[in-house]
């Protein structure tokens, strides 16, 4: 096993992004966390509030909100699902990821470690990270700020020996006891007789040391990824430009992608909710739905659609909180990569799907559609609009084909472009005219059908037409027909 630990020493402060600097979080009149401006002035965790104000009179303070910290840790756990489904929480400030099974997917331990740390920073948190074969050893290394990778259990003795005894988080009484016997580091502690150490400080300390070195099992409760994804994010400042919401939206989308990856599922739709405050009053939230042509858990794909939709969004008032929810998800199995890295059919399908989604986001969902063949002789009724996108297992090179019932019932060629309404043509000397006389190349093809809906309102009704393929003076290939009224242009060949 290999554990990557993210320790968030400033989490209590980071969940209040709108606080002005210098600022600190307090609990029971003591400083819990500070920002960089306060830290540079000498304000540290554990300091009494009165002492902190004496050092920095302009210090802005905020009472600690444990529920906010839990919600932030929950969102970060969902985000971590992109790297592993083996996620555990160690409240109030620590997240544990078991990553041994993910190393090959991300290019090894060092590459994965860098990606996780960088991603955690993108989520708005500054972590102290560590990697070790046991969870407790990784926690101690992270607490001490030692981010050098420890991949083998045999390295733990040398790596842990130099850590201060404060990583054990003992009570003040036990810390004083260690100080009296001269134990400043874990190495000092390990040189003491175990029986005397247990007698003075308790059995649990001995067990912790055994767990850290892998001599005792240390099972961790797995984080249970929720059935539905619902997350909110407070913005540092009110935002009155829709484009400026992309940064905060990215954090929520990547958390959604991690949640989906851990659960092996995808979504075809998710909804952003932008909460407003204007004139000191809360206003109705603005909803922005993202729809995809097929189930996905690709965060970058979601981000592209989100960016497109933001371009046309007008905010009624500045946004202070952004939320994202995905109520309906569906199973989405993974895909195997090709042995030699060729461009696969799946890759081609995803390119078409991405194009469809971008067009829908830019032009509107109703403006982009596909066509499906219908078992009908009349050209106007031979196809119908359907939702754009590839069907399950569809292939981009598959042509639009007729329903099996009507396969083979179209003996003649059909034009790529069919006019919405046939256009009347003049006739001169027995020949149809369209920018000059037309030359008939093929035909006639009799189409006679539709008597069953002749009496229905707005229906096409019965038609009796003789279709021809004609060529114009400009070398245009046209699809025309003649009926008892005259000549009509109905379609154009490409």
The CATH architecture of the domain at 3-16 and 65-212 can be named as 2-Layer Sandwich
Low-confidence segments: 392-409
- Number-wise, the strands total 20
> What name goes with the CATH superfamily of the domain at 3-16 and 65-212?
Reverse transcriptase/Diguanylate cyclase domain
The proportion of residues forming helix, as a percent range, comes to 25-40%
- Supply the CATH class of the domain at 3-16 and 65-212: Alpha Beta
Number of helices: 14
In what order do the strands lie side by side in the largest sheet? Answer: 16-15-20-19-18-17
**Separation, N- and C-terminal Cα atoms:** 62 Å
Tell me the Rg in angstroms: 34 Å
Averaging pLDDT over every residue, what do you get? 85
CATH topology heading of the domain at 3-16 and 65-212:
Alpha-Beta Plaits
Task: Classify the secondary structure makeup into a structural class.
Answer: alpha+beta
Strand content: 25-35%
Largest sheet: 6 strands, antiparallel
Shape call? elongated
Write the layout of secondary structure elements.
Blueprint: E1 3-7, H1 11-14, E2 23-27, E3 30-34, H2 36-40, H3 49-55, E4 60-63, H4 66-80, E5 87-90, E6 94-98, H5 109-122, E7 128-132, H6 135-144, H7 156-161, H8 172-180, H9 186-190, H10 194-201, H11 203-212, E8 229-239, H12 246-263, E9 265-278, E10 281-296, H13 299-311, E11 319-326, E12 330-331, H14 345-363, E13 369-373, E14 383-387, E15 417-428, E16 431-433, E17 439-449, E18 463-471, E19 477-482, E20 487-492
Parallel strand pairs: 2-4
Antiparallel strand pairs: 1-6, 1-7, 2-3, 5-6, 8-11, 9-10, 9-11, 9-12, 13-14, 15-16, 15-20, 17-18, 18-19, 19-20
Helix pairs in contact: 4-12, 10-11, 12-13, 13-14
